[in-house]
Structures are given as C-alpha cells and as structure tokens.
Fold this protein.
Amino acid sequence: MRPPVLNPLFAAVSALPGIGPRFEKLFARLLDRDDGPPRLIDLLFHLPTGFVDRRNQPKLSAVKPDTVVTVAVTIEKHRPPPPNRPRAPYNIEASDETNTLTITYFNARKDYLQKLLPVGSQRYVSGIASFYDGHLQMVHPDRVVDAAGFAKLPLLDPVYPMTEGLHPNLLRKAIDLALERLPALPEWQDETWRARNDYPSFAEALRALHRPSAPSDIAPESAPWSRLAYDELLASQLALALLRKHMRTRAGRGSAAEGRLRARIISALPYALTPSQQRAVVDIVADLARPQRMLRLLHGDVGSGKTVVALIAAAHVIEAGRQAAVMAPTEILARQHFATIAPLAAKAGIRPAILTGRERGRAREDILAALAAGDIDLIVGTHALFQENVAFRDLALAIIDEQHRFGVHQRLALTRKGQAVDLLVLTATPIPRTLVLTFFGDMDISELREKPAGRQKVDTRAVPLDRLNEVIDGVARALDEGRRVYWVCPLVEESATVDLAAAEARYKALQKRFGKSVELVHGRMRGPDKDRAMERFGKGETRLLVATTVIEVGVDVPEASIMVIEHAERFGLAQLHQLRGRIGRGAAKSTCILLYRGPLGPTATARLKILRETDDGFRIAEEDLKLRGEGDVLGTRQSGMPGLRIARIDLHGKLLTAARDDATLILSRDPKLKSPRGEALLNLLYVFGRDEAIGLVRAG
Ligand code: ADP
Ligand code: MG
C-alpha cells in the first residue's frame, strides 16, 4: 500500500484544475507514459533542457536587436489586417518614453488580442525583438503579462522538451500546479552524504530545477539535478538488490534435457555459431540444468546474434516439457523476433506463438487458452505478456530483450508468471564494461564479443549535403543492381512537425525519381501500417525505405546493404552506430553514407570520424561518453540509460557506484526497511516507480 502522503504525486495530470482530460493523450506522449494516465510525479520529473533569460529589461531605445528582451510598454493602437487581406499580419503599436514597438501576430484572433493587449493598458512583453523596415518589431512575443503577471514572471524561464500540439504555457501551468502540491517528505538520503554534497531536499531540488534562480541550477551537474539523479540511482540499486536477493534465495528448479532440440535448431541454422555464442549457450544450459535460479545477462552489440542464443536457451526448457517466453520492448521487435524464431522452431518441433496488444478478440482468447494448456511452448510478445489474464502451464524461462528500455519491473512481472522462473536478459546497452554489473545489478554475464562470421565492415563515408545529387545517383545505381537501401531522416520529438515534413518531402522527391519501389515509415504511423511497410521492404517488394528513426532498434533485413543517414550531424554517436548496425548483415558489401549539413562543429566532426574508423560498439560507447555534453544531439534522451529519467551515465557515473554501495549497506543493516530511514526509502521506491521491489522486502 502506497503511503497516503504520496497521493498528491500520483494524482492524474488531467485532474488538475484547468487541464482536463482533453489533454491527457498529449501529456501521456510528452511524459512517455504508456501504462496508465500521466501523473504529477511524471510532470515533476520532466526536467527543463534549458532556459530563456528574461533578465534583460531595457528601454526600447536600448534594445539590442535579435536578442530576447522583456519590455514595459503602453499599448497605443491595434491595426488588424484589412478585410480584403485577412492573411496580412495583425499589428499592434506600443511605446515607452524612448521609442515605439510594433507587436505582430499572424493568423491571430482579433477578440483574443484585444483582451490580451487592450489599448491604453500597460503590458510587459517578452520575446525576440528585431528591426523591420527601420522599426522595432516583436513577432509573436512568447510572454505577455500585466503588472501582476510580471511580478510572477520567472526571470529564468525554463524550456522543456515539448510534444506537438501541447502549448508550452499549458505545460508550465501544469508544472506550477504540481509544484504547489508537492508534499514535504522525510529525507531518505543519508544525512552525512547529503551534507557533504550540499544537496537540497527532494522538494527543494524539484523547485530549483523548475524555477531556477541561477542558470547553473539547470545544468545536470548542479546540486539539485545531481540530488535527484542520486535518488533515482539509489532507488534502482535498491530494487535490483532486493530482486537479486529474492531470486537467489528462492530455490530454482532444474530443467533436465539432453539437448535434442538444441541440436536440431543448431543443425537448421544456415551458419555456425560464433565461439562466444557457443560459450554463452554452454553457460546458459548449465544454469538451466541447475536447481538454482538463473539470473544472467547476455550482453552484445547490435547484430551480435543474441536472438538465436535466446532460442537455444528456450529449446532447453521446452525439451524438459516446460515453457519459455521472450519479451521485446516494441511491437516491431516482437514481430521480428517471432519471424526469426518461428521457422527455426518449426524445424525443431517447437510450437511458437506471438502475443502483443494487437492480438485481439477470438485470436487472443485462443492463444491464452493454448498457453495455459501448455499447447504453446514458446511465446514471443511485448509487455502484453505480463498482463493479469496471461497464464502459463509451466513457465520455466523468461527472456527479456531490454534493448534500451526495461527495468526490474518487467523482469519481475514476467518471472512471477511461473514457479522459480529462470531469467535471461538480453541487452545491447552500450555501456563501458566497468559499469555493466553496477548498472544491471549483480548478474552472471555472457558477452558476445565477436560479430558473426561473414559480417563485413560497413564502408562508411561522410558526404556534405551539397552533393546530394551524387548520392541519389549512387542510390539509383544500387537499385538497378537490385540492392535494398535505407534512407534515414532525423525526427526529434521537440521539432517533430518540421522533421516529419522534411522526411515526407524527401520521400516525395525520391518517389518522383524511383516510383513505386520507395516507401515511407515513421513513428506516427499506425502499428499495422508500419509492420506492413517493413514487411514489404523485407520481402523486397519495395527497395528504398525512407524512415525516421523507428528502424533503429533491432530491425533485421540482411539484404539491405546501403544506408543514407540524412543530417548525420544531428545524431548522437551511439545512435548512428545503432542505425548503421542495420546494414552489413548479409553477403553484399555494404555502404553507409553520412549525409551532413556543414559546417560541422568539432564534436560532430569527431563523431563522424570515429564512426568511419571503427564499428566496435564498446569503443564507440566510450568515445560517446567523452564527446557527450555538447550540443543538443538527437536521441540524447533515448540514449540515456534504460529505465532512468533523470540520471545520465556520462555525468552521474560516480553517483551510480555510490548508490550501489549505499543500497548494499542499507539492506545489510535494515533488510526489511523498518527503521525510520527504511520507511523513508519506501517512499523513494514509490516515487521512482520501483515499488514492485517492496513486496519482496516485506515477503522476506
Ligand atoms: P542482435 O539481437 O544481437 O542484435 P540478432 O540476433 O538480431 O542480433 O542477429 C543479427 C543477424 O545475425 C540475424 O540475421 C541472425 O540470423 C544473424 N546471425 C546470428 N548469429 C550468426 C552467426 N553465428 N553467423 C552468421 N549470422 C548470424
Ligand atoms: Mg536482437
């Protein structure tokens, strides 16, 4: 039971006065909530990425053009567009004692502007001022307030990651309301530690980040941000430690098998397992046969061949007459695992099925019944797998493909579906080796170090956008040779509309030249449409796939041998590596063109250079850490650590080690979290959504 003191934090955003259910979907998308309505705590953890400085408040005569200024003016006159030119701008004349200012709106409603800026009133307007025809002008000020509003106007106005359709003012208002409702909670950090680091309290930290009083407050290295990062890391380390204790102390069940099914799968493979795949199989099979529970991480770069190892592991428990489940983070990935697994499974006599949010009605009922009856041996799916009505006859092995997303929550939820379920976690998280154990908790590790044989190094070139036509000609030659090509366009949530338009424009241009063989996929498409588009490309019905970054994780079309990445300078290193990992999978020599818009800054230059030099994911991960921190790179947020919203491994890596030691110490002194600090730590687990672990504390 969640302590009632936390209730305000878990109230729905849509219950806030003036917000309402209309905006629920938008907030859900912004706050990345897919398993329930967005809550105030999600809002509070939506931290700003920067700020607008409104401290510059000059007289009009002293305004420096093209900078953000906040000016006090008197509204003189409205000049709406003439009736015969309704599209003309709506101008409002304003002045102070030194000069005049034209405030300009496009497509504005007259009644709205007359209310906002009534003639004769005193207003404070803030935005970028510039000169137009020799007159000072401000187009669409971002803030317009009266004296009372000015008194409350934040001088450092935080800027948040946004989502299309949600107005920043609405987000600000919601965050303000959430801050007002923030309860004072007993401190869960060790007081000596907190004092030594000069950390504010949890509530103070959130206030400082959302209402900064100095620019330095907002930096991820600041005391408020670090405090929250530490909280988050401590919560995750505590949860991992609890999970581990639970998994290790409960007896497991050995699954006995001679390896018949495994042998059949291996002989059905069109290739030989790499040495590290073989080693992983040996380790896993030994774990599965032992009566202790398996808790193992299979860590390998994209394309290192984790799926087939997972299938062989599943074959072991299936031969023992039990069941296995593979859970993937997205629909596309689940379908793709299934596509890889199903034919091999069929050859070995294993009965597979897929279950995602998309299987509905009768089909779903049938799958659920077969699973409960034991007529399905191996189920592949998304988080739909751990919903309540999903029951197994005898689940022995849960395989969780975390890619970059999951956490303890999903691991636990799936292992609860059976008795003493063994756990295999697959991850491609590019994380330096030294941090793996700390990050994932103490698990046994199998590492897939080498790439499968026959993999070719992808020939990688950086080409400036001025040479687009040459690139397109190259694509034309490749298509003539029957090859398949990815054309990747960036899409950042914050500027999604513009990016999507650019991707669509590129698609149209390419379609004009190449006709029906071109197709577009992007993240806003409906799931089934996306799948079908991927499928057509997989089958070769289309051969040029224009895609936003939806293809990043796990997509596997070995015939694709060319990738053009447009605006490569906007992508992070890890993400470029992930993307490029989609090619070079088949027999053909592969080429990756990093199409960039110059001039490149030093970091972007370094990134593209590293990528040309190496395809070693670990080296890239390390270089990535070194290069981070400059500029707004696409996917910085995504390439953060799985399950973490606030902490960043590049900046808070030291805190991770401290949090791990802290968690160990806490549990050795107070294993049931009964002391006052223990009670406070329960709040921490709830606040960071690690509360599944609480059941484990109290169950012992
Ligand atoms: P990961 O999940 O680690 O990113 P996958 O399991 O998707 O990688 O494997 C990538 C591709 O490599 C698949 O097409 C798979 O069939 C192929 N593959 C896996 N193991 C080998 C191997 N030993 N030799 C050749 N190809 C392999
Ligand atoms: Mg995979």
Q: What stands out?
A: The longest strand covers residues 67-79. The chain has four domains: 4-50+176-219, 55-153, 260-448, 459-614. The CA atoms of residues 403 and 427 lie 5 Å apart. The pocket of adenosine-5'-diphosphate (ligand 1) is lined by residues 271, 273-274, 277, 300, 302-308, 428, 452-454, 556, 558, 585 (CB under 6 Å).
